[in-house]
Write a structure and sequence with these properties.
This protein is an alpha/beta fold. 37% of the residues lie in helices and 13% in strands.
Length: 298
């Protein structure tokens, strides 16, 4: 379930409308706080799990993850000889949420203290099956045909199907997330785990809204890593650029990559958006829309 489908707030800004490129005014206020977003991350978007709380919620998520290792892999035609290694791979991908961490970094996080590291072919099988099972749900890199963007990199950005699964794999509870403690294997990640999981929560919803609008979703990163945009929504050659920021009020530094993209010839930028944990939707003086995560919908 997307944030809009969860019924915690009524969206006031439509992604479909943002894709028109008319850059209309945005407005609305939300009562959802930082703690509320943490709760949404941990409760998951699974309809059958969301009503649960406490130990029962954790047990259901643990059972879901155990079923992937103990049953779903076998049903997908892949024998799991070392279940503990597969669990560690899943935790390493969870720790890499919202990053473009390389295979080598994920392998090292998963197998750092094991006697022997699995071959790349074995790891590839794990990844392929997890994607077929819709457990891993990476966002592909944006690779437009314009020669002006030849400097873009191509690795996908890692996400699990639901950030609650990532949090549970890492044994991250609300207190750990709010305190900024980094549980589990640590990838090359900028910022906090909570920031990464918030981006994943937003990505989960935005991808559903984009699909309803017949648009494609990707991310932008230059080869040198000097420019990044979290989400690129593309439809009919036009682009909606979205940055996800865990803060409440984005400053000029938070929108620098959006401004860079807008200045590129041939970017076909329809609109620029920063999605936040703040209380209100508005447009900055530079025209960039600032929208709380709960106020954007299809």
């Amino acid at each position: 379930m997307t944030l809009a489908e969860r019924g915690i707030e009524t969206p006031t800004v439509s992604l479909r409308q943002l894709l028109t490129g008319n850059r209309a005014a945005v407005s609305g206020r939300t009562q959802v706080t930082l703690e509320g977003y943490v709760e949404e991350i941990l409760r998951s978007g699974f309809p059958g799990i969301r009503p649960l709380t406490g130990r029962l919620l954790r047990a259901q998520l643990d059972g879901y993850l155990a079923g992937i290792v103990d049953r779903d892999f076998e049903e997908a035609g892949q024998t799991v000889r070392r279940p503990q290694v597969l669990r560690r791979w899943m935790a390493a991908y969870a720790a890499a949420t919202s990053t473009v961490a390389s295979y080598e970094k994920i392998r090292d996080a998963a197998t750092g203290d094991l006697a022997g590291k699995p071959a790349k072919t074995t790891a590839q099988v794990y990844r392929d099956v997890l994607e077929r099972l819709f457990i891993l749900d990476p966002v592909p890199a944006w690779l437009p045909t314009s020669n002006r963007f030849a400097q873009l990199a191509s690795p996908p950005k890692h996400h699990l199907a639901d950030p609650a699964l990532a949090a549970r794999l890492l044994r991250a509870d609300a207190a750990a997330l709010l305190a900024g403690r980094p549980p589990g294997p640590e990838p090359a990640r900028k910022g906090t785990l909570l920031g990464a999981l918030f981006e994943s929560l937003v990505t989960q919803s935005v991808r559903a809204y984009a699909q309803a609008a017949e648009a494609q979703v990707s991310h932008l990163r230059t080869r040198r890593g000097d420019h990044e945009v979290d989400l690129i929504i593309e439809r009919d050659g036009g682009v909606l650029a979205i940055e996800v920021k865990f803060g409440q009020v984005p400053d000029d530094r938070d929108v620098r990559h959006l401004r860079w993209l807008d200045a590129q010839p041939g970017s076909h930028l329809l609109d620029s958006v920063v999605i936040t944990t703040g209380p209100a939707a508005y447009r900055r003086p530079d025209g960039i829309a600032v929208i709380p995560a709960t106020l954007i919908g299809p």
